[in-house]
Design brief:
Layout lengths: L7 E4 L4 H14 L3 E8 L2 E9 L15 E2 L3 H15 L26 H5 L20 H10 L16 H14 L3 H13 L3 E3 L25 H5 L6 H7 L13 H5 L7 E3 L1 H12 L3 E2 L2 E2 L3 H7 L4 E4 L6 E4 L4 E2 L12 E5 L5 E5 L4 E7 L13 H11 L1
Antiparallel strand pairs: 1-3, 2-3, 2-14, 4-6, 5-6, 7-8, 9-10, 11-12, 12-13, 13-14
Helix pairs in contact: 1-12, 2-5, 4-5
Amino acid sequence: MQATLNIQGHCDPRFRAVQDAFKQNFDTYGEVGASISVVVDGAAVVDLWAGHIGPDRTKPWERDTIVNVWSTTKGITATCMHRLVDQGLLDLDAPVANYWPEFAQAGKETLPVRYLLSHQAGLPAISEPLPLGSAFKWDVMTDALAKQKPWWEPGTKHGYHAFTYGWLLGEVLRRITGETLGTYFRRQIAEPLGLDFHIGLAPEYDVRTAETISAEPPQPGETHFVLDMLKDPQSMPFKVLANPPDLFTPGVVNTLEWRAAEIPAANGHGNARAVARLYGALARGGELDGVRVLSPQAIARATEVQATGPDAVMGLPLHMALGWVVSSPEAPLGPNPRAFGHGGAGGSLGFADLDARVGFGYAMNKMIQTDSLMDPRWPSLIDALYSSL
């Protein structure tokens, strides 16, 4: 528990319960530094930050502090792909090989783009061992995925593509646009909408990037899906997390090499304000402040559930749409059925609620490892939000 917590920013008086829940996370879970933002019908009603950017607690978390948000990045990547559909440049039912000819290997000739978004492609891992450093070499990763045989018949199962999701979709986008996904996102979405969010972090931003604090390992005797995934070095789940070995190297997330690379499934850097503003636009049918991100038709199509039940990688009950996770009994994003978004390892979260027209963002630097889809810090924040509407 911190002796004094200086919460800064803006909170509409109606949403004081959100600020109280935000503070409680520091008291209860030892939060080090974090930001939370809520956008309701286009208006920022909560924009708060507190704590410190590192475990030594010497430098305060500032308004412009950004942090790695892990798989919350996947929701950003999905937005880019659906924007391509809106632009008439991508057909979700077309074979991936139509855009990326080298992909037509190992039985993947007809695999449709939608399976990449719904984690049904059977490509969550690369079977051949890759050398250290491969995660930072785009062509090495995409060449390996082009050659990879699916681990299951595409479309028959869903399994979380924890890292490969980003290289697969990013290469489709690159073949269509000639740009990297990070560049496309910056030009098409981040700059027009004013989002401080980056996939591929320029070195000048390093000074205001918080240090990610790894989760404490499970205690002896505790069950945990990550431990289960790492039991067998020859297994598909092990290779999801540890091939190439960069992906599971302690501290890699705080290196300049990690920050500068484009790993569109896992290394987006931003703050809650940026995440909430993007989802706030989607919650209003895809438009905010005169900037059209997606069409209502694209959002409706993208949020149709494609697969449910325990996934083939983690064994967790995912409810997958096309790039986003939809609210479910196992991982509720508020009380309304038309809520969707994506969380990140350790506790970051972004989601949109089409019924309440709410965009939500949470970003922090202290990771908490759970054995479910829900982080313990989320429910009180979400409950406080909806009690305030």
